[in-house]
Every structure is written in structure tokens, then in C-alpha cells.
Amino acid sequence: xxxxxxxxxxxxxxxxxxxxxxxxxxxxxxxxxxxxxxxxxxxxxxxxxxxxxxxxxxxxxxxxxxxxxxxxxxxxxxxxxxxxxxxxxxxxxxxxxxxxxxxxxxxxxxxxxxxxxxxxxxxxxxxxxxxxxxxxxxxxxxxxxxxxxxxxxxxxxxxxxxxxxxxxxxxxxxxxxxxxxxxx
Length: 184
Known about the structure:
It contains 8 helices and 5 strands. By secondary structure, it is of the alpha+beta class. The chain folds into 2 domains: about 5-75, Ubiquitin-like (UB roll); about 85-155, [2Fe-2S]-binding domain (DNA polymerase, domain 1). A 5-stranded mixed β-sheet has the order 2-1-5-3-4. The radius of gyration is 17 Å and the shape is globular. Residues about 170-180 have low confidence and may be disordered.
């Protein structure tokens, strides 16, 4: 029985070790945020973070994931407070949303490794296919997420569903943002 850590929780899968991680996450763990797009690794919709690296879960088996740490979109942040999630919304870099979990996971891995990525670094790290064509806004969103991660900017994002704005409101000290990086 393959054992791994998924979203900080130890999990044992009673499945064939050759099962793609994608199907173990979706079918056995009920983590359906990881999307099935093409099944051959071309679209990157199934991207998850494995030991800090963005990987396509349709191409990695449970046997290959054994003993590793896997983070899915559900584990990125329960309250949607991750800088990438906030920036994707703030920059309106989401259309239909199907590819968004894979993009968010690839972007989160990039920001973790390089919180100040260039446009070229973003384009190389985010090869995800998006039928809606959000690519120009995506670059801005990921650069903005990097500024948020570096504490150069704060995004006043809407609270997660089910939380009132009053309950989510908090006093946050103003942060100095270089005028050249200020947006809005």
C-alpha cells in the first residue's frame, strides 16, 4: 500500500502502485481540485507540488510518489490567502477556471523557489494550456504574487465563501510599496 503525505496528512492508498497519482488524489482522496485534462502531460491541468516541485500528477505513479510530500490546490491554503490565489483573482487572471488549479500550483512552486521571477522565468515555469488565453494577465498576477510573498504589497482580497466581510476584516498596518510597483 503506497504511503505518502498529502496536504500535510499521512495517507495510505489501497490501490495499485502503478495508478497515476492524479486518480489516487481524485478518486480515493476526493481531492477533485486536481483536474484531468489530457492524461499525457501536455496540458498541465493536473499539476500538484511534490516535494516542492511542480509535477504533472497524470505522469507520476503512486509508487513514484511513495514517501513524498504532495500538495494539491486544496492544501495550498484553506482560506484562499496564498499570494498566488489572491493575485490571480486581483489581476482577473481566471476565466472558466478549469486550468486554474494547475496554474496556481505551478505558480506557487515558482514563487517558493524564486519570489521575484522575470517574465521569461514565468513563461518557462508555467507551460499550462489555457483555452481562455489569460496569459498576459497571468504574468502580471504571478509577478504580483511575488511582491505579496516578499511583503512589498498587500492584496485586500474578498473573504472565502461563508465568511462575512466583517468577520474577515482586520487591522493591518500600511505597507510601503515602491511607486514603480504600485498597481490599481
